Amino acid sequence: xxxxxxxxxxxxxxxxxxxxxxxxxxxxxxxxxxxxxxxxxxxxxxxxxxxxxxxxxxxxxxxxxxxxxxxxxxxxxxxxxxxxxxxxxxxxxxxxxxxxxxxxxxxxxxxxxxxxxxxxxxxxxxxxxxxxxxxxxxxxxxxxxxxxxxxxxxxxxxxxxxxxxxxxxxxxxxxxxxxxxxxxxxxxxxxxxxxxxxxxxxxxxxxxxxxxxxxxxxxxxxxxxxxxxxxxxxx
Amino acid sequence: xxxxxxxxxxxxxxxxxxxxxxxxxxxxxxxxxxxxxxxxxxxxxxxxxxxxxxxxxxxxxxxxxxxxxxxxxxxxxxxxxxxxxxxxxxxxxxxxxxxxxxxxxxxxxxxxxxxxxxxxxxxxxxxxxxxxxxxxxxxxxxxxxxxxxxxxxxxxxxxxxxxxxxxxxxxxxxxxxxxxxxxxxxxxxxxxxxxxxxxxxxxxxxxxxxxxxxxxxxxxxxxxxxxxxxxxxxxxxxxxxxxxxxxxxxxxxxxxxxxxxxxxxxxxxxxxxxxxxxxxxxxxxxxxxxxxxxxxxxxxxxxxxxxxxxxxxxxxxxxxxxxxxxxxxxxxxxxxxxxxxxxxxxxxxxxxxxxxxxxxxxxxxxxxxxxxxxxxxxxxxxxxxxxxxxxxxxxxxxxxxxxxxxxxxxxxxxxxxxxxxxxxxxxxxxxxxxxxxxxxxxxxxxxxxxxxxxxxxxxxxxxxxxxxxxxxxxxxxxxxxxxxxxxxxxxxxxxxxxxxxxxxxxxxxxxxxxxxxxxxxxx
Lengths: 235, 523
Fold this sequence. Notes:
The complex is a heterodimer of chains A (235) and B (523). Chain A has two domains: 5-130, Response regulator (Rossmann fold, 3-Layer(aba) Sandwich), CATH 3.40.50.2300; 137-232, Orthogonal Bundle (Arc Repressor Mutant, subunit A), CATH 1.10.10. In chain A, strands 2-1-3-4-5 form a five-stranded parallel beta sheet, sandwiched between helices. A four-stranded antiparallel beta sheet of chain A has the order 6-7-8-9, with helices on one face. Chain A is α/β, with parallel strands linked by helices and 235 residues long. In chain A, 42% of the residues lie in helices and 21% in strands. Chain B is α+β, with helices and mostly antiparallel strands and 523 residues long. Chain B folds into four domains: 2-145, no CATH class; 152-277, GAF domain (Beta-Lactamase, 2-Layer Sandwich); 283-352; 361-514, Heat Shock Protein 90, CATH 3.30.565.10. Chain B is 56% helix and 15% strand. Chain B contains 13 helices and 13 strands. The A-B interface holds A 16, 18-19, 21-23, 25-26, 29, 86-88, 90, 107-111, 198-199, 202-203, 205-207, 209-210, 215-219, 223-227 and B 305-314, 316-317, 320, 340, 343, 347, 350-351, 354, 365-368, 370-375, 377-378, 389, 391-393, 395, 397, 399, 404-405, 408, 430, 432.
């Protein structure tokens, strides 16, 4: 069965008319079926009445706090939520992601960025829905992971990584294109008790990057989202 | 004796000013003679009545009264001696002689003299103490009244007026007062008391000369052509001058000088207090205004941000809709670029207002230097994909305590600056090293542009300074980028410098961040 990402029904919640029009135009141009809301109340009433697949959510709404909407939606739905925020709202971004939002966009964003985000979350969503078939070999650019043999190949040659590095890399491979917050990674790799040991994560990331990246300060695979977390890109 | 006179003058505050010396001596001698004569006459009556023993008591009474009603010890002592002599002469056998040939008359004379002397000195002493106390009380009262009035003063003009009037009445003179403005410059006028009810303003012909004299003063006061000038020193600066007419100043006695000093002191305190209050009000006003300005700037910037995002997005759509050879393409491209530029300006203003407000709380954490550098380069590469930026980071992971978002902004601003001043294909590089000796991380951004004019180096981190020469197609700058860098780095306890490269053309910006987290005050 082939999945058409563009069958998704998108809800865009944005209080500024200009940006709402812009998003609406872009979604239209790409052929997404969509509906817009300018307030949190409006968004919630649409969410209960329409079969929404994906939500674009501006955090700074006039009536309800964006966080509150995420919390409410997550009570009954796993639908992808992409948060839209201003540049100085990094803290809110990370908080929104930890609450269960899937990704974020910073204003002003380009069409390319918007669709890149939408594609990633939708692909991830459909994979979850359709995927019984577990791939044993995962590939991103020149990186290849053999899940059965627990081996990593960089540009075709086998590269030794420690178990922790391997776990970290696999976590990213399972979330290609998605931003993972520091908190989420710590929880996945170290377990619940290590909530704040970001230094350990920085060190692990540095050593992993030195194995997979040509220049760890100009990463090609795992990018740093300052103040938020990391993202494995497949471009 | 002078002291007596002046103290009585002080008691009444306003006294006739004349030479009382001779007059009072004659007056007091008269009192003395009158009492002694009266005592002698009374003594004669007693003797006639056969009660001559009472005469001694009568003489002692006369001595006591003389001491009481004359000033100083002299007339008391004179009266004592006179009384002893007269008593011995008139009432002690042998009568009408001073021959002390009998034990009786001798002892009577000595006893009488001692008794009279003790009476006179004790009386005079008691009287002097009373006068002294009254004098002190009067001085305290004057100062108290002055201080009280000064407290009610509403401005420095009031203070000067009150001081002038009080000192004038104390010295019975036409005292003047000159005050300085908050910048320490004397006013061109001073006020002078010309009668108990009237003060006038008088011009000072050469204020600067006066000021110079006062500043060079190393004695108590300065003597000018018309006035003797006493400085009014505040806690920090000269606040004003009390001007006492020359001849009155010369005529002042010790206690008047002391009083004058005390009054000047009170005036200085009042002026100082007024100054401080004034400064605080001004300071508060400035803070309020500054806060208002910053808030206004911030809210305007904030409101600009959203529509700009819309313009950027919409122009991007239009840009994709127009072919490169379309005549409309460069117009749309212009809109897009300008909107982008405006947007980064708005973001910079927002950053700066938050920084300058002092309300910015650094969210310092140990961050990997390479990650922050990488994020900054990624941002620049998105805007200038055609530029290649070289990066050098240490092999070993370097963790630096910092607010990563702000330091990324610093790097972005520096790289943006480098890109704007470097033509394509020329080198732009970022490096991070660890300075183990100074225990800090050193970040450096180098370009191959035209460098920085030596004259501009000192101003380059100042706000709105944008005179660095640019190549033709660069976006205009408003000069906020580098001040932000400066503010952010300083907030971290680091240091930022700019200089020209020594290995060829180009500029280099270097900033340091301390590796110790806990020992910086601004944390």
